[in-house]
Amino acid sequence: MINKKVLILLVLSTLINNCSFDNKTGIWGDSAKEKKRISELEKEQKEIIKVDKIYSSDKSFYKEISLIKNILLPKPENISSWTMSNQNYQNYLGNIYLKSINNNFLKKKIGKDKFSGYKKITSLLVLKNNIIFSDDFGNIFHINERGKTIWKKNIYKKAYKKIYKNLVFSIYEDNIFIADNIGFVYAINLKDGKLLWVRNYETAMKSNIKVFNNKIFLINQDNKIVCISTKDGSLIWNILSIGSFIKSESLLSLALTKDGNLLAITSSADIYKIKANTGDIIWSRNTADSLFADATDFFISSSLVISENKVIFSSGNNTYSLSLDNGETLWRQQVSSVATPIISGKNIFIVTENGYLVIIESNTGEIISSTNILKILKKKKQKTKITGFIMGSGKIYSITLNGFLISSSATSGKTEAFKKIGGPNISPLAIVNGNLYILTDKSKLLVFN
User: Fold this and answer.
1) How far, in Å, CA of 207 to CA of 219, rounded?
2) Which one of 122, 324, 375, 438 is least enclosed by Cβ atoms within 10 Å?
3) Do 375 and 398 meet the contact criterion of CB atoms below 8 Å apart?
């Protein structure tokens, strides 16, 4: 007869092995529930591509306006690190110091990107001249400024091989905190890539990630705003917002005020100001006059930008300025930014998806300049879209869907130059230590100065 202690040890060993992590394949286990979840993810991802290619109406901005007043910009600020989406908790990207883009000192393909139809929506991170980024297989790379790999990490088992993985991550206290579009949230050590903990929340995370005061903030696919512990990934609090039947690749936005309150926007166009410690709602409001006018329209928002006592962002076809204190609308302008609005001096700089660089007076919402920057391209190349932009030393650098980098003057609005840098899949831009960092299609890393 088997000794009871031996039997208990055998059972415990089996349980531990079934819940363990394997260095080759990542998260282990092949339960029927997990197989069903993987099948649902594959089906859902195919539907997302179809939805994002449908446009039922065109309410784009098509107006060129000559500059009506002088624009003064503050001195460019030298940014020494980029440790989270949009560089800081307020998503405030001003006039960042950039040496130039004449010299491409790093050009290297690292990783794999083989899932066609998906766009890169997560920027790379830069800390102490080291670069952290991921490919669509879920590989996370930590490389130095010469392109040498320090470590590579992938936690996913083989069953997830056919699933496109979009990772959002943030560096906090020498660790990297990651969330994905599958439902996993995990932490790895920045220095050696060692896995610290992992949780499967079984619902895709659909926002950028902010980590503050030992708390991780995210929004999932069901519009649930969650606060998770950095210690072990356990849930601290959550807020369930109004759900949305539309699913899109675009990330929802989070921001943190300087006094530690959380701002979040959901896919139902609801904005919340929340006490980060407790999850208590300070105020909430909806920013859509008639969300989802018909079944093929879907909600897209820019990042929420906190500037003094205002919240600046684009929602649907409008750009808003709200009071940070109570959510009251200060002004609304019928033009929408394709990426994070940039505030510098007394003006807001946005670029529309259809290629207009628009300068808005921040206090009144008045448009003081609008230029079609796509006109600089050859006529057959102008039928494209803008996918992202950033300001570097008084110039707006915009990325097009067909792989061009266009530079425009932020003080005049005039387009100055362009260059071909890649294909249709380019990540959000980052500027650190005077260098411009770009992750292009097929996981090619470019660094300009």
Assistant:
1) 5
2) 375
3) no
Q: Locate 347 and state its tokens.
A: 């003006």
As a residue count, the chain comes to 449
- Condensed to tens digits (0 to 9), the pLDDT of residues 409-421 reads 999 999 999 999 8
Torsion, Cα 277 283 287 292, to 10 degrees, reads 70
Asked whether 263 and 304 are in contact (CB, 8 A), the reply is yes
In a domain, 120, yes or no: yes
Model-level pTM?
0.88
Spatial CA neighbour of 244 closest among 36, 41, 51, 387: 51
Does the pLDDT at position 188 exceed 60?
yes
More confident: 192 or 54: 192
Q: Are 398 and 337 in contact (CB under 8 A)?
A: no
Burial of 105 (0-12, 13-18, 19+ CB in 10 A): exposed
Report the CATH number that the domain containing residue 323 is assigned in CATH. Answer: 2.130.10.10
- Indicate if the pLDDT at residue 10 is higher than 50: no
- Structural domain boundaries enclosing 312: 25-448
pLDDT for 97-116, tens place per residue? 999 998 887 888 887 777 66
In a domain, 433, yes or no: yes
Compute how many other C-beta atoms are within 10 angstroms of the C-beta atom of residue 215: 20
